[in-house]
Specification:
Blueprint (H helix, E strand, L loop, with lengths): L2 H14 L3 H13 L1 H9 L9 H7 L2 H4 L2 H17 L2 E8 L8 E7 L1 H5 L4 H9 L3 H15 L1
Antiparallel strand pairs: 1-2
């Protein structure tokens, strides 16, 4: 994580103010939903699409319908994606979603590509693999040892 990432998260939490629901949602985005949101980004989907059900379950209808709530979630997702080495890559219209009508698409940033030999890059890479993909990777690596 680079210093700019910390600044982005400070901005997210400043935006939440004293609202404990939004603070909890931001923490969940950063820690609980991280792998799913990264997976969606890698599938050329807007990561916010993966949060609609959670938001409907955890937030009141009054908070959920506020534009500022959706903007806050976008800010938090943007901070997470930057922290994970992604850059904004455009906007996507989201059809049939109860919360979001559009969302930002993300792609791996150029700085991630140049740091491909770093342990952090490899950790991020492995973190988005499914269990089956991790098993396959283990098998490939064990064959290379022989």
């Amino acid at each position: 994580m680079v210093e700019g990432d910390n600044q982005k998260w400070r901005r997210v939490f400043r935006s939440a103010g004293a609202d404990s629901d939004l603070r909890t949602l931001a923490e969940d985005i950063r820690f609980k939903h991280r792998e799913r949101l990264i997976s969606l980004a890698l599938q050329d989907m807007a990561p916010v699409e993966g949060l609609s059900a959670t938001m409907r379950e955890s937030l009141s209808a009054e908070i959920l319908t506020k534009k500022s709530t959706r903007q806050f979630v976008g800010l938090a997702v943007g901070a997470l994606m930057a922290e994970q080495g992604f850059e904004p890559a455009g906007i996507k219209r989201i059809k049939g979603d109860a919360v979001f009508s559009s969302g930002t698409l993300f792609r791996r940033g150029q700085s991630s590509a140049t740091a491909s030999g770093s342990p952090q890059f490899l950790e991020r890479l492995v973190s988005v693999l499914t269990t089956e993909e991790k098993d396959l990777l283990r098998a490939i690596l064990s064959r290379q040892k022989d």
